[in-house]
Amino acid sequence: AVVSTQSTGAGEEAQPAEQQNTWKSILWRFATMYIMMSVIPSFLRGGNNSTPATDAKVAPGQVSNMWPTGTQFELYVYASPEKMFALSSSSLVHMFPDLTMGEWYDGADKNGQRFYQANIPTTPELQNNGSLYLHLVAVRNSSPLNPHDPEYKSRDVVICTKQWTRYKKRKVESKTNLLTGASSNVQEGVVDGEVISYWHPNITISFLDDQRVWSTSQPIPPPFDKWIHIEEEEMQYRPVLYINDYWELAADMFTVNETIDVLPLSITYAPISIFYFQIYEAQKMQKDWNKMLGVGEASEEENDIVKRTMMETNPVILGVTVVVSLIHTIFEFLAFKNDIQFWKSRQSLEGLSVRSILFNIFTQLIVVLYVLDNDTNTMVVISVCIGLCIEFWKITKVMDVSVDLANPWFGIIPRIQVQDKSSYSESPTKEYDRLAFKYLSWVLTPLLLGYAIYSLLYEEHRGWYSWTLNMCYGYLLMFGFIMMTPQLFINYKMKSVAHLPWRMLTYKALNTFIDDLFAFVIKMPTLYRLGCFRDDIVFFIYLYQRYKYREDPNRVNEFGTSGAHPEGVPVEAEVDGEGTVTLPEAKAIEAKKNE
After folding, report:
1. Most buried of 208, 445, 517, 540 (most Cβ within 10 A)?
2. Model confidence over 263-292: pLDDT tens digits?
3. Left if phi > 0, otherwise alpha if psi is -120 to 50, otherwise beta: which for 116?
4. SS3 category, 403
């Protein structure tokens, strides 16, 4: 979002970045898929090079799929409290008959899918944090399931087991109204941190029709290494019966307790291609990588937002927006680079709001404390902390900072002295900046008091510290864009915009327009969607000022040059507080006229 010309201000840092993070997460997942599917195998020297199987006999040292394409089979779904499958302790939930390996046009809709809605009765053990496993059994040639049956053949039976009850710690927000002590989260018998069981009502079962030949002398590359199980005696590998849980939403899970008599289970069977199998497994490998690298995982809510976006968004719009998200990331980097470059080489502060820089430090500090207080993702915490360090660095560029060792605080701590730079204090900019914040305080103070009272009366908090942070953060979220207006006031008083870092502003403006696109794609409240256009209005005012206040060729910029003097203003020339150059010859002519 477009912010004050000095830096990234409250309007951008405090604003929730759900619409940005969603698409960046999707973009990151696509990149991870590419790395897992393309880059990693190239580093596995001596890795297994698979070849498609043919009707010819497999060469020695190679293994093929036990079940060729076109194999007829039945799929049984059993439920059991035991982890190991046994017919004696399992109850049949459903059976899909007459399935075909590699058949993509099966089912009522001719899309290869079959559905069944099952209801599994609960038991007292299951209602008290008991476990329930789903055993998926694929059988070909009508082979018996009982391994003690004389006609039983292991090669004709494929079993996949998955624990379908999930265990998570219950998280109860201990928030109360600080005035009345009332809380809407209080539930009788509910204990924060208690481990309870959850149930997900959807399951998707897939058979991977992979007919490639693998070499036994070389390791199988990921992600197939976890799924390809080779039978040494027969020199064949068992087909992959896959449970696709990628599209499961955490919001669909519900607790299993004594009030639940029946567990609904929507069962979907659908074949899966090698391409999609690698995509889903790449996401699981990404989680393993994050754990290994110590990178914080996205929350369940964030994952649900990404999945819903990918499921509900038109594929064309999805593809376009992912590309735009990549451009958004590039613009963010360029804006950051030019912002640092601008302040690193800045010599004059004329026309720039120094008070906005100081206020940005306060807003950035609020953001850092807020994310630390709300268990935010580690990468987000690192990002906002870096932003805070940059804001502190800018102080050294807009003010004269010195250390007084002769007069330390309490006789130990060195005294830090901060003074305005002469280019700021000796120009009209300082007075314009003071007036801008004076007028701004007339607007912001009532809004701050009103929002603080509203937050205290109608919202719940963990304590007074949490209330202070939430109140300040919420206030910056709603009204932080107003902090972009002091620079507009200074531009108006100086009748110039030549001092602004337009390259950095342009990148930030382009990102604002991209955010507007996200606001229309991602589901969000209408008022929040309209709020995304606030920064656009400010930037259009900047554009109007650029059009209104044409650049004066005699005005000196921050590098000591002007349009009339590109190589530098002569030393003997006089430069007034607004940057206008007066040469000695012009001054002499003016003096003669006055005579």
Report:
1. 208
2. 999 999 999 988 888 888 877 777 776 666
3. beta
4. strand
Task: Return the SS3 of 560.
Answer: coil
Determine contact, residues 165/191, Cβ cutoff 8 Å: no
Give me 71's structure tokens: 């194999």
- By DSSP bridging, strand 62-65 and strand 236-237 are parallel
User: Which tens digit of pLDDT belongs to each residue from 125-180?
Assistant: 998 889 999 999 999 977 888 888 888 888 899 999 999 999 888 776 677 888 88
Partners of 461 in beta bridges? 176
- Residue 61 backbone class (left: φ over 0; alpha: ψ -120 to 50; beta: rest): left
CA dist 406 and 418 (Å) reads 16
How much of the chain is helix, strand and coil, in % rounded to 5? 45, 20, 35
pTM: 0.63
- CA separation for the pair 301, 48 (Å, rounded): 38
Query: Contact 477/415 with Cβ under 8 angstroms?
Result: no
CA distance 295 to 307: 20
For 184-241, the DSSP string reads S---TT--TT-EEEEE-SEEEEEEE---EEEETTSPPPTTGGGT--EETTTTEE--EE
Neighbours of 113 (CB within 10 A): 16
The H-assigned helical ranges of 495-533 are 502-521, 526-531
Q: Which of the two residues, 137 and 413, has the higher pLDDT score?
A: 137
Separate counts of helices (H) and strands (E) for the chain: 17, 20
- What's the distance, CA 376 to chain centroid? 11
